[in-house]
Amino acid sequence: MLEIKSNQLEKVVLVGAILPGASREIVHEHLDELHLLCTTAGAVIENVFVQDVGRPNAAFLIGKGKAEEISLYVQENKISAIIFDHELSAVQVRNMENLAKCKVLDRSAVILDIFASHAKSREAKTQVELAQYEYFLPRLTRQWTHLSKQYGGIGTKGPGETQIETDRRIIKTKILSLKQKLVEIDVQRDTQRKQRTDFFKVVLVGYTNVGKSTLLNFLSDANVLVEDKLFATLDSTTRTIKTKSGSTFLLSDTVGFIRKLPHNLIASFRSTLREIIDADLILHLVDSSHHNYQEQINVVDETLEEIEANKDKVQIVFNKIDVLDDVSQINKLSNLYPGSVFISAERGVNINQLYEKIGAIMNSNIMKGDVEINFSQSKILSSIHDLSESVKTKYFEDRIAVSFEATRANYMKIKKLISNSAM
Description:
By secondary structure, the chain is of the alpha/beta class. Helices cover 45% and strands 20% of the residues. Residues 143-160 have low confidence and may be disordered.
């Protein structure tokens, strides 16, 4: 992990491999993003190494000659860590650490470190801690265990290996404990979600740093932290939004996505990401000014698919149109993504259009129903009032006629209540 314990920033080097099927341009773009990740984590990048790799080396990923070149540079320049843009196996980490005599990390480790430093709530801290332990468990090496020596030789192998096994047992116990904590937190979240069933729920998703928190702040004055950094906020924030037409909905911000987001991080954040699964509308915010917006859209789409979110609920919203170099880009994007909305969350451009789109989707989600109940079913009438947007009743001698309007989900709940009562 990148841990800064003093005012002195860690000196690191980055390593990228051009694997079969990958272009040099894409690899360099990914390295630029890794550069920003490392800067966010508090490191100084001293050099970047890139190699064409015809076949990944099982020992180092890159070729042995390049690994030796990097190791020599690291030792001569007192570098703290080597950071690869690709996921490394435990063997590759160990071999590179033994060769370079310094920490060896991959992109996933850096992302986990940023998440750890930005986690504020109990839930976020627990989720990140679980992801870290699951990530580092198979990557424990004797060089970094706390009781082993920082060098090999006679008298060190036995105690060092024993300590690794001890560390593994401790970590496995900790993982079980953290998973139990998240189950308890998830129960609390379920209670909160049940209290929100009457509201239309809108969730913001998108690649990290596309302006989700900025949009949430503009719409709700939520005062959520906004920084030009990756993963500036982790904890989901929910606010009640009222439109000019009088419609009310809940708007939630979620953690940003990124390329190569660690799978164990997605798994540990599953309770937070359930906000997306349970949403009535998913606003997918895209940075229209980014030169590779298409790949960012694909990354978000793949992550949504991984957490099994309903793609039919997704509405594309292109942000940052105020910084477009070429305004014709809007026409191009509009043709590629019909029905999308174009805004500037920073300047409040076209926000009314966004409200109109949300309102139209909300209205399409409203269903009308007519039912008849008897006087002994007063509890059902009370539930209809609780679950509906509007209710009209007409009393007869032997029955009550009820007309109501409710969201699709609440409409189905009302129908189920009536069906069960008839049994």
